[in-house]
Design a protein that fits this description.
Elements (H helix, E strand, L loop, with lengths): L7 H12 L2 E5 L8 H13 L4 E6 L11 H15 L6 H8 L6 E5 L6 E4 L9 H9 L3 E5 L1 H4 E3 L5 E3 L5 H5 L4 E5 H8 L4 H9 L5 E5 L3 E6 L2 E6 L11 H13 L4 H15 L10 H12 L3
Helix pairs in contact: 1-2, 8-9, 10-11, 11-12
Length: about 300
């Protein structure tokens, strides 16, 4: 018989009474979730660890938080419009804080990004508030120096200028990409090894530094180097973007040493033609076997 109730807590208790203490709950993606009911079930399972709750869903939305009054003035009107009275999901808060009880499991078909790469072209495209929000998500944060040291001058040309928010941004970045010229501009030394160490001392755990012949990675105080092997060299434009993108994605499942070789191989293949890389993964593995040793 169908039961009706206006109290989410009573609904949750009725579900346990009807279904039992092992619950598999499938809910829609995005904002289509019955949040009040989901939260009531989560709270019930938190209070009674004999209840096993497995939630199947996708794209669980969480309202971003702001830390400063400037961030609040910028983001609050937009968030109020997008989320309005939409309540926070209990399990998203617990997942972010690492406090989800062992008797509650969440399977998401649309996963949150494991890493974010901030790769702007010139300063001003990506504000500090955005990087803070990404950091709060718990994802790996990568950033390319070019989007912070380059500005468009009055002559319409790109110029390197001092980076006012350098300390604030680098404190939030896990993996920093720079080339040799940008590294020298920021550190005052043409020695790429010393420059990488100086940048690492300012916050990032890993530095990915590209130069004309290859790349240098400094990760947790240990250096890894790999040479580029394009055959032939036809497309240098986009080399840096390819390098940091392939490195950061590979780091989600591999060590810094393995990610360095992977990025060098992918970048080498990209440099063999103009435009983005359009080669199959098998070609990357073949190049690693041929030029870098075993994959």
């Amino acid at each position: 018989m169908t039961q009706h109730a206006n109290d989410p807590a009573r609904c949750a208790e009725a579900i346990v009474d009807r279904v039992g203490r092992e619950i598999r709950l499938a809910v829609p993606i995005g904002i289509g979730k019955p949040v009040l009911l989901v939260n009531a079930l989560c709270k019930l399972a938190e209070a009674d660890r004999s209840i096993k709750l497995h939630i199947f869903t996708g794209l669980s939305l969480a309202r971003p938080r702001y830390r400063t009054s400037l961030e609040e003035r910028f983001a609050k009107p937009l968030l109020d419009r997008l989320f309005a009275s939409y309540p926070d999901l209990v399990y998203t808060k617990a997942l972010q804080a690492g406090t989800l009880p062992p008797n509650i499991e969440v399977t998401e078909f649309f996963l949150q990004a494991g890493a974010w790469l901030v790769s702007a072209s010139v300063r001003g495209e990506v504000p500090l508030a955005v990087i803070r929000a990404i950091k709060e998500s718990g994802a790996l944060v990568g950033a390319d120096v070019q989007g912070y040291v380059r500005v468009v001058g009055e002559d319409g040309r790109l110029h390197y200028t001092p980076w006012p928010e350098q300390a604030a941004v680098l404190a939030l970045v896990d993996v920093l990409k720079t080339d040799a010229v940008e590294a020298e501009f920021l550190t005052g030394t043409a020695d790429i090894h010393r420059a990488a160490a100086i940048l690492a001392s300012q916050g990032p755990r890993e530095i990915v530094l590209t130069h004309r012949d290859g790349m240098l990675v400094l990760a947790d105080g240990k250096e890894h180097e790999a040479t580029f092997h394009p055959e032939p060299l036809r497309g240098r434009s986009g080399r840096g973007d390819t390098c940091i993108g392939s490195y950061l994605s590979r780091r989600l499942s591999s060590s810094p040493a393995e990610a360095t070789i992977w990025a060098a191989a992918v970048t080498s293949l990209k440099m063999e033609a103009e435009g983005p890389i359009r080669r199959p993964v098998a070609d990357v593995h073949a190049l690693i076997e041929r030029k870098y040793g075993a994959d």
